[in-house]
Amino acid sequence: MTKKTAFTPATHTTPPAAFSHGVRKGNILQVAGQVGFLPAQEGQPPTPAGPDLRTQTLQTLTNVKAVLQEGGASWDDVVMIRVYLTDTGHFAEMNDIYNGYFAEQGLTEPPAARTTVYVGLPAGLLVEVDALAVLG
Q1: What CA–CA distance (Å, rounded) separates 35 from 60?
Q2: Interval 84-117: pLDDT, tens
Q3: What is the distance between the alpha carbons of residues 48 and 56, in angstroms, rounded to a whole number?
Q4: What Cα–Cα distance (Å) separates residue 92 from each residue in 48, 53, 66, 95?
Q5: Distant-in-sequence, close-in-space partners of 117: CB < 8 Å, separation ≥ 6
Q6: CA dist list (Å): 41 to 31, 38, 47
Q7: What span, in angstroms and rounded, lies between the C-alpha atoms of 54 and 52?
Q8: Shortest CA distance to 87 belongs to which of 48, 121, 112, 114?
Q9: How buried is 99 (Cβ within 10 angstroms: 0-12 exposed, 13-18 middle, 19+ buried)?
Q10: Do 36 and 57 meet the contact criterion of CB atoms below 8 Å apart?
Q11: With contact defined as beta carbons under 8 Å apart, do 131 and 81 qualify?
């Protein structure tokens, strides 16, 4: 039986509830929903990267990447991404930011599926992203 390993990168705060930022079992890595918080500072509460969608989206993707790397994966291993927005009006702008980010990362094979769902997020957060990677 393959062991399940949960982890939190050093740049992330410890989750306030019973969940992990990432879990790997065998060649499967699930990245929990990440938001645009700046890197963790000891004794400080999480702080959003900024009030605007661009800043939060870029930080969110950076946070997803940190979890992928901690689990031994990269963007090339990601087969699915889900993006959650708080405002349907942000859809086009988020797509532009998303496409630009992955072009800069050199990702030539984008994930097979990307679902966008509109939800409420706490503390002025505008975007959340989770990812599923298959290593192999």
Answers
A1: 5
A2: 999 989 999 999 999 999 999 998 888 876 777 7
A3: 7
A4: 22, 11, 25, 5
A5: 82, 83, 84, 85
A6: 21, 9, 9
A7: 6
A8: 121
A9: exposed
A10: yes
A11: yes
Report the relative pairing of strands 78-85 and 113-118 from DSSP bridges: parallel
**Would you give the distance in Å from CA 134 to the centre of its chain?**
16
**125 vs 1 pLDDT, higher one:** 125
Name the nearest CA neighbour of 11 among 25, 34, 124. 34
Two tokens, residue 95? 């797509």
Tokens at 89, concatenated: 């009006």
Question: What is the pairing mode between strands 28-35 and 113-118?
Answer: unpaired
* 28-35 and 127-134 beta bridge pairing: antiparallel
Give the pLDDT of residue 113.
67
Token pair of 79 as six digits: 């087969």
Chain centre distance of CA 33: 6
